[in-house]
Amino acid sequence: MSLITPDFGLLFWMTLIFGIVFFLLAKFGFPMITGSVEKRSERINASIAKAREAEEKLHSLADSQEKMLKQAQLEQARILKETSEARDQMIAQAKEDAREEARKILEHARMEIAAEKESAMRDLRRQVSLLSVEVAEKIVRKNLKDSSEQMELIDKLVDEVAGMQDRS
Amino acid sequence: MMTVLLPLSAGAADIDMQEYLFGHVGDSYEWHVTTIKEKPVCVYLPVIVHSKSTGWHCFSSRHIAEGETYEGFRIAHADEPHAGKIVEVQGSELVKPLDISITKNVFGLMFNSAVVLLIILLGARWYRKHDAVEEAPKGFAGLVEMLVTMVEDDIIKECVGKDYKRYSPYLLTAFFFIFINNLMGIIPFFPFGANITGNIAVTLVLALCTSVAVNVFGNKQYWKDILWPDVPIFLKAFPLMPVIEIIGIFTKPFSLMIRLFANILAGHVMLLGVVAVVFLTAELGTVMNAGLSVIAVVFGVFMDCLELLVAFLQAYVFTMLSSVFIGLSRQEPETE
User: What is the predicted ipTM?
Assistant: First the structure.
């Protein structure tokens, strides 16, 4: 059998066998393998992308956490400051109130004293006017007896009244 | 080394070198396994022939092994036409019938194809039983996946281009078919060792398949490049390029056919030659024979390793060149 002339029988069988092998492998063999490998590599790529995304998210999460912490600290400081301010204010307010109250009490006392004084003065004035009326009565009773004596009496009475007035 | 030794032994050698070499790399109707006590141990294969006068015949090659005539058929002698083939004896004339016998090569082809099918389908079976998206195969299926992925990623995707998926089953089949047949050809025992990919009929069919894939599924741009290429006007007046390109349509598969055939055949012949040194030097004396035998064995081991490389390399090259030719037939027109 010559080496370089293709033999018909072998050609026939080769075509048939290779055809069958190709058909079977193309239908049940290679697409199964290549398809699965492709799906897997897609999946792996997707997983890598997802992992990267998660990492980025984690980073941003840490960032925001830090931000939140800083904000909380600021808030704390602010609240502390506000509280101390409020306390100071409250103390100041209390002092002010106390002072005001004291002032009011004093005022009240002063007003009462003034009212007392007023009423006392009114009393006195009534007394004086009564006295004056009495004096005037007496002067009128001694009337016209002695002019010099009258004058003396008037002076004496006036002095008396004036002395009383001074005393009160 | 061979050229030195052959003339020495040619005179008295009881080995017919030509028959020895051709018997091993060629085709035959029975499979000679070994010879025990001068009795050949053969696997007789079915002969299937169709005669124009007597119709279909199917019988075991046992009946014609020793040169006998059976049902009007015998194997032609070396000095007759169609030497080594089955011929029909019609009077004094020898007529060649339609011969689709299961010869040694056909049997080897069937066996190796079964091995290819077994390997790939067993590998593919794993994916039916597992969720390939969630896990990767181990062991045998992993090996098959690795090889398939290597061929697809390194050769097919690179060389074919964007619609590689359409061609990848054919190219993968060609790769594994050639690779397994090459490897089986190296194993020297029955039922391996048939010279399948070193047979021109086999490589012819493979090359034709690639040619069909290239020319039948080639796009418009491919045919335009062949018949009306973008060349200067003086080259259009004298259609040199189309002539070269049309010759190229035939030379490309031809080169594929010859490359695989010649590489594998040459490897087998080299190995057989190295082994023959042991027998050819038998009459040179024990010392000479022993010394040369050691050299022959060492050289044979080296050749076998080389053949392993060639087995892979030729499958790789065939697949890669087929991919390149297919890729060239699927080129998109250049946008300027």
Answer: 0.87
Low-confidence spans in chain B with pLDDT less than 50? 1-13
pLDDT tens digits along B297-319: 999 999 999 999 999 999 999 99
CB contacts < 8 A (A, B):
128
Query: Rounded CA gap, B68 and B62, in Å?
Result: 10
Per-residue confidence band for A143, with pLDDT thresholds at 50, 70 and 90: low
CB nearest B133 (choices: A14, A32, A40):
A40
Q: Residue A39 and residue B98: Cβ atoms within 8 Å? A: no
Inter-residue long-range contacts of A74-78, CB under 8 Å, 24+ positions, other chains counted? none
With tokens 């072998």, the residue in question is A10
Task: State the CB neighbour count (10 A cutoff) for residue A70.
Answer: 10
Q: In what order do the strands lie in the sheet with B98-99?
A: B55-60, B46-51, B98-99
User: In A, which residues are within 8 Å of B132 by CB distance?
Assistant: 36-37, 39-40
Q: A interface mutation test: which of B86, B172, B203 has the most A CBs within 10 A?
A: B172
DSSP B175-231: HHHHHHHHHHHHS-STTS----TTSHHHHHHHHHHHHHHHHHS--HHHHHHHHS-S-
Q: What is the pLDDT of residues B76-91, one digit of tens each?
A: 887 887 878 888 888 7
Q: What part of B 149-188 touches A (C-beta under 8 Å)? A: 149, 152, 165, 168-170, 172-173, 176-177
Chain A contact residues (CB < 8 Å to B): 1, 3-15, 17-18, 20-22, 24-26, 28-34, 36-37, 39-40, 43
